[in-house]
Every structure is written in C-alpha cells, then in structure tokens.
Amino acid sequence: MYYQAKELNFYDAYEPYISSYTMNIHYNKHYKKYLDNLNELLKKYNYDYTKEQLVFNIDLFPLAERGNILFNLGGVLNHELYFSILGSGELSSSLSDKINEDFGDFNSFQEEFIRQANLLVGSGYTFLVLNNNNQLEIINVPNQDTPYSYGLIPLMNIDLWEHAYYLDYQNRKDEYINNFFSIVNFSEVSNNYEKAKTIQKNL
Ligand SMILES: [Fe+2]
User: What is the pLDDT of residue 145?
Assistant: First the structure.
C-alpha cells in the first residue's frame, strides 16, 4: 500500500495569520514525515484501502503495529484535512442551517469551537465532526487521533500542535486560535458536510 502526498502550493496564502515559513515547514517536514512513516509501515502489505477505510480495518494488521500505523495515519489524515480547509469560501445554506439547528447560530458555534480549542492541553486538534446521530459536535482529540476511530466524520479541524503556530505566535496560542476563523474555507467545510452525510449513513 502506498499513499501519495496531497499537494499544497500556496504557502503564502494565509499571511499574515500563518506565515509561509510555518506553512512550508508544517507541510514539507511534519506532514511529509507522517506520510513517509505510514508508507514505510505499509509497504509489505497489499491491501487497497483509502486512508479512511484503513482506519476502519486497522484490526487486519498485527497488534504490535496498529498503534504506530494509526498514529501516522492520523497524522496524515488530520493534516490533509487542516490544509484543505484553510483559505476562503462561503458556508453553504445546508451547513449554515445545520449549524443554526445544532449550535443556535454561527457566532455560538464559533465561540464554542474557540473555547474548546483553548481547553486542549498538550498536542492535538479541535474538530467539528458529524456524529452517528447526524448531529454536529465539537471535540478535542489528543496527539494524532482521528475522529474516524470514534465513528465520527471530521469536517474541519485546527492543528494545535506547537509546530502549527509557535514560529508565528510563540506562547500566544489563543491569538492563533482566534485568527484561525479568518482563514477557514467554509465552502470546503460545506463540501465535507455533504460527503459526511453519505459516509455516516453507510457506516
Ligand atoms: Fe501539524
């Protein structure tokens, strides 16, 4: 099994909130390392799974290797989602309605996401997910856990590992978290929501 890197060409597209220097190191050093590790661990296997299917079929692998595979697989999936939802783009009416239904309004959703992100200790992510009751939820996960492991479909996330912000913000993690909402492509998040509804139905 071998996975190709997802392309990221616009390192400077998120200035001034995230510098091109941070994006370059984040993508080329951190993300690519997870991908290389994952491919190295999987090279002796001949399965033909998508990365998401691999999470659901992790028990096909020897017990001693699962933790390492899952850690690097999570590292790849979580980074690919994070890089893909950075940018700019409008929320669809479908996701907007759902946010209003589950959080009250967009501001309440944003406040709750920021509140959760500030609560995360150590390395990890805050995610917006679709749960198996078809509700939106905001969750924190440690390290490189992927929401798929919990039957939750990720729609957007913020990387809260220090490598995501330290060069630009040092100890001011709260500023990075607040600025994050200025560079979310909600059109991409809306696409993820439409896909998630189909995936959740088939889980
Ligand atoms: Fe990261």
Answer: 98
Phi and psi of 170, rounded to 5°? 50, -120
CATH architecture of 19-203: 3-Layer(bab) Sandwich (3.55)
What is the whole-number distance in angstroms between the Cα of residue 191 and the centre of ligand 1? 22
Largest Cα span, the chain? 49
pLDDT tens column, 152-168: 999 999 999 999 999 99
Residue 104 CA, ligand 1 centroid: distance in Å:
30
Span from the CA of 165 to the centroid of ligand 1 (angstroms) = 9
Q: How far is the CA of 159 from the centre of ligand 1 (A)?
A: 5
Residues 146, 161 contacting (CB under 8 angstroms): no
Q: Phi and psi of 122, rounded to 5°?
A: 75, -155
